[in-house]
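Do me a favour: review this protein, sequence plus structure tokens, and tell me how the chain folds. Record follows.
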Amino acid sequence: MASTRSTQTTLAFAAVTTLFFAWGFITSLVDPLVAAVKGIFTLTDFQAQASAFAFFFAYFVVSIPASALVSRLKAVPSIIAALITMIAGCLIMLTAANAANYWLVLLGLFVMASGITVLQVAANPLAAALGDPKGSHFRLVLSQTFNSFGTFLGPLLGAHLFLQGVEVKEGTVITPEVRAQALHGIDSAYFWICGLIAALAVFFFLSRRVVTEAAPAPAASSDGLFAAFSSKWALFGGLAIFLYVGAEVSIGTQMALFLNSNAIWGHSDAAFSVPLLGYAMGSDGVQGVSLQEAGKAVAFYWLGAMVGRAVGSGLLTVVKAHKLLALFTAIAAAMCLYVFAVGGVTAGFVALSIGLFNSIMFPVIFTLTLERSTASAESTSGLLCTAIVGGAILPLLVGLVSGSHGYSFALIVPAICYVALCFFAIAAGRAPTVRAEGGVSSVH
């Protein structure tokens, strides 16, 4: 009997981990999608970045209601509701691709991200709870690793499906055939994603009893959801999350366009000589890096974050969190400034490497804020999750700057963000803590 229950719990954990992979994969598809819609619908950089805005704006709208929903319905019904919402988003994306309507693309992304927001609020504590309590941290880290793996694979598949033959450089024209092929790629991607999500929804419905029994009871909050607004450090941490997510998403969503530009890799084959990177990009035999090849290279920006999380976890056992955050943010700022000031082929490799230093920022900012906030952990966490809306706002600004001054120049915006985050880390090192470090659910 105990063996059967253990097997059921293991299967439930595997399903929850699949959710982590799924939302990482879906989120990173936004990067090649931004490049694709720019060409398909003949958009400016600013208009194309509306795709990122639609996706990440959902965090601002849904995070606090999602916390209330999970508290009311418990984890499993909330997950099923989230998956159904994501299916609705996929169906809207299928309609958008077949109707060639950009407004429907934006609506589909918003609906899908709304479901993902609820999913993250419910799934993080559930992953930690499914099994022996002594292994909770290991399970959450393992699930987050699969999330990172999803963010690595997303751009590879997205570029393959969305960007075949698509070019957006000045003077290029997308033929009706290329446009139809790109729309078909979007249709295919979200059709299969819809099927995967539907299968997960069925699994969770059928196994709802065993998963519910293992799920933790919602923690009672000592104050309201909006109490964090009265805490200076909760607000400070919210600003830090806003800037971090905004910087990371801005770089990721512009990366394919940046690498494809003539000032970086547009006329160079240097990237193809790099082991693994060159293989993944898959040279088409034409001099320079096409938009599709550049889109595949974006995967290595997210792979850097995956590797950095593994290395950073070890470093955090011997280096104080605020010091490591200060170091990583300073390096990321310097790398952005290098791209801004120097440019050229080497700037492409430097920009891809920024992901390595983004890696530990979210969980460390989250933890440092929780330790110093005078509001409850639940209220503070709700505010910090809401601040992920930086991923909606700052890409629009970066798109505006790149449209006027070029992609290299636009990295001055994330550079400023990283400098501000460095000051946050220094200030955190000097500020007193009001609670011991507790568990933190990384939702990005």
Remarks:
- Residues 256 and 295 are 5 Å apart (CA to CA).
- The two ends are 37 Å apart (CA to CA).
